[in-house]
Every structure is written in structure tokens, then in C-alpha cells.
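QUALITY CONTROL LOG
STEP: pairwise intake check
CHECKER ROLE: data steward
CRITERIA: each record must contain a sequence immediately followed by its C-alpha cells, with no blank fields

ENTRY 1 OF 2
RESULT FIELD BELOW
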Amino acid sequence: MIGLLADPVVDWGALLKVVWVSVVGGIGLMAAFSFAVLGAVRASEYRRAESPIVAAAFTLLTLVCVLLCAGAIYQGFAFVINKS
């Protein structure tokens, strides 16, 4: 009964799109940050094990993932600030 009353007020397609984008963005940001932590830990381990090439690769992974996270945060702020 409530769903029938809310139909003219709520754009269900837009609401579903917002939920879907939020879930995908949240999982993507969580995965990028997790890979950043993994890369930092592995880089430290391989640096101690005297494997500089592998350590550099994991350091690069960390930097790329941190930049992805920073970019996502920047985009979020820019979207909220520039919303008209």
C-alpha cells in the first residue's frame, strides 16, 4: 500500500541507479585501498629480503592504488561542491 502511494513521488529508476553506483564505487574504493595496503606490506617484506625489483613493483602498486583513492575522494568532493 505504501509503495503505491510513493510511486508518483519517488523516481525508482534514479534511486536504483544511485544505489548501484554507490555499491560499485564503495567496493572499488575498498579494493583499491586494500591493494595499497597489500603493496606497502609486500614492498617492505621484499625490501628486507633484498629483492629490489619485486619491492619496486609492489611500491608502484601502492602508489597507483593510493592515487586512485585520492582521485576518487577528489571526485566526490568536486561533485558535492559543484552540484547546482
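ENTRY 2 OF 2
RESULT FIELD BELOW
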Amino acid sequence: MCTSCEKSKTGKEIESRLLKYDKVKEAVVISKTNEKGDSHLYAYLVPTPGSPDTPPELAVSQLREYLSKQLPDYMIPSFFLQINKIPMTANGKIDHKALKGPPSGVLVGQPNI
């Protein structure tokens, strides 16, 4: 598993595949290490806007199925988090430090282990 997906080809490849999914507007994939020292991929997703009556929601099982047809297992994120927008720095770059674990967004997936 990659240790620095925000800067690697692996993270960009996963993001690229997620952005081709019709229900995903924006995506960022990073690797995080938990307190036990285990690394997991986290996919932060902004859904494509739905109608006013139907808020957008992403189904983890569908995302995993979609990605599994295009990527090897080790590139499938362990967690998928639906967020309202991707945090940006004052310089207009993705603020990776602002992307927290599950409490900062709506957890839409469980570990893929």
C-alpha cells in the first residue's frame, strides 16, 4: 500500500477512476496510518448534486464494485467518506491536513479488510 498517496501516482490513479464514476463530482485519496500502525486508503468524495428532493448519497458497495473492475484490490480504498467540499489552502491546493478520519465527514464505508 502506498505511504504517500496524495503525492503518488497510485492516489492520482484511484482519484482519476473515481472521477469517472457518474455520482462523484470531486475525489481525493490519501493514505493514513492509525494508532496501531496500520495504513489504510481513505477516499474523500463530493457527490454530484442531486435534485432538491433527493440529496446525493454514494453507495459504498457500488463504488467498490466499480473500482474492483478497474483496479487491483490493494488500490481499493478501505474507507469512503462523503464530504460537502474538498478543503483548500490559501494557495488553492488541496488541504490534506484538513482531511480528518471518519468523524470529519459522513462515513459511507467500512474497512475493506
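INTAKE CHECK: passed for both entries
DESCRIPTIVE NOTE, ENTRY 2: The chain is about 20% helix and 20% strand.
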